[in-house]
Amino acid sequence: MTGLWQVAGRSDLTFDDLVRLDFYYLENWSIWLDVTILFKTPFAVLSRRGAY
Q1: Residue pair 1/45 in contact by the 8 Å Cβ criterion
Q2: Which of 12, 23, 14 is nearest to 3 (CA)?
Q3: What pLDDT was estimated at residue 27?
Q4: Which residue in 43, 40, 16 sits closest to 24, CA to CA?
Q5: For the chain, how far is it from start to end, CA to CA, in angstroms?
Q6: CA–CA separation, 24 and 39 (whole Å)
Q7: What pLDDT was estimated at residue 9?
Q8: pLDDT (tens digit, 0 to 9) for every residue of the chain, 52 residues total?
Q9: Which residue among 36, 38, 44, 51 has the highest number of C-beta atoms inside a 10 angstrom radius?
């Protein structure tokens, strides 16, 4: 499973940032936003950025 905040910084983000990104996703959902998130997921996982 993945989401906007998982590819945008994961543990490096504050709770307020997480909520803001979730609302952004809900208000701006599109198939292309989902494709973008899916495309960025492997890079976020392999870079280990924000992973603790």
Answers
A1: no
A2: 23
A3: 96
A4: 16
A5: 17
A6: 18
A7: 81
A8: 788 888 888 788 899 999 999 999 999 999 999 999 999 988 888 877 656 5
A9: 44
